[in-house]
Amino acid sequence: MITESTPVLETERLGKRYGHTAALTDCTLRVPAGRIVGLVGPNGAGKSTLLGLTCGVLGPTTGSIEVLGNRPGGDAAQLARVGFVAQDAPVYRGLSVADHLRLGARLNPRWDRSLAERRVGSLGLDPAQKAGRLSGGQRAQLALTIAAAKRAELLILDEPVAALDPLARRAFLRDLLAFVAELGVSVVLSSHLLGDLEQVCDHLIVLAGGRVQLAGDVDDLLAVHHRVSGALPAGAERVHEEVVRCAAAPPGARPVDLEELGLAYMTRAAVASIGGAA
């Protein structure tokens, strides 16, 4: 069982190559337990690769990774501790909602039948309904229900709301927060939608170009980043345009939000990758 001192995810110079292409390079992270982690970055940044390594469906090319204190995907017991919802909210279109719950009970030793049935009822899903006839939001909610009902200690969600309309996204994120409060589970949530992440995340990882650009608890990161017009204050580092990093807010500085912070680091990485050209 994970303790407060055990990070849910710890990597040291982690790297993954596909042939001659580097998808992830020198990735060093330490994510404490009990966090909802927002994983952001442009397409091709390495987000899905990092999540695949965390789940154990991919193996590293270089470096090391531990999930909940162990090698990811090392055995059945470790697999049972991690729940995963892929980008397309994978469900079996030919199976009914009830079939999915029965399948979850057979495959997961810590399956919480009561939680699953209660969630299906609160969502208004017909147990006899085929998953292929559900809306995109309903399929995403069914996938989240199955992942949560396996009573995992870590939920990994890869772009789960990317294809949902604003109301469905809001409902999904609201229910995710409810699961975190009820189950005490840690979450890694990958998304392009920084505004959505700002509603739920208390830890941020920014990936770009296969490298970690920024990582830490959101409150700590916001406390040392500011928006400053004009000359760079003494002791400050310019991240991009008006966003600077310094320990204390300079006179006249304005706070940044999570979206501005993430975009500043992603833009800086993009500019550096093309040799400083705009």
From TrEMBL:
Coiled-coil positions are none
Keyword Transport on entry: yes
> Which segments constitute the ABC transporter domain?
9-234
Q: Which UniProt keywords apply?
A: ATP-binding, Nucleotide-binding, Transport
Q: Which PROSITE patterns match?
A: ABC_TRANSPORTER_2
Molecular function (GO) terms for this protein are: ATP binding; ATP hydrolysis activity
SMART domains from the entry? AAA (SM00382)
Q: Which domain of life is it from?
A: Bacteria
Q: Which family does it belong to?
A: Belongs to the ABC transporter superfamily.
Question: This chain belongs to which protein, by name?
Answer: ABC-2 type transport system ATP-binding protein
User: What organism is the protein native to?
Assistant: Actinoplanes regularis
